[in-house]
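The protein record quoted for completeness.
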Amino acid sequence: MLIHDMHPVERPREKLERLGPEALSEAELLALILRTGYAGRGVTELAEELLTAFPEGLGRAGFQSLKRFKGMGESRAAAVAACWELARRHSGAPDARPVLDSAQRVAQHIPAAVRSGRKEHFVAFYLNARSQLLHFETVSIGTLSASLVHPREVFGPAISSSAAALVVAHNHPSGDCTPSAEDKDATRRLIRSGELLGIPLLDHLIVADSGFFSFREHGLLA
């Protein structure tokens, strides 16, 4: 239903003025942020569709996903993302997302099954501007001695999760964390891809049960 087809007392703005914001549903509150719908779709219907499409929360959906949603676009997506971030900052609730701002902290979040895997697992940690974890992904699982990874497989989730940066890691089933020539080549490709996309690669870890090797700590990310 379009806003102008509603009875005046049921329109979100008038309802808020009369009863206060606590009386509005989530869809009605979101409709006030969006302000208008699009051809053939009222703003409240658009709001309901958004809430259904992103049950994990619009704040976690990210700007890129929101702007691609039909009827949104960059302006509305930016308004929604800004409102959710403002609400988070003023909620007083602690942000439970882990901060991965060092190789040691990243290593602590690599699953034990990856460290001790008999095949190479290539994983990626997608971070926001505060180095908080947005998304974790197993990019590929290779053979006993090699893991094949392409930049598009690594940066696709980075774009969809609106990541500001990323850290990658893979295990060496041999237990030796020394980087191979192939590891160094793959890292250089990811660095170049990150520079082109504006999503920098912050580190590449090689892990095993015995410990880990950090490309950044050894000055190998230049």
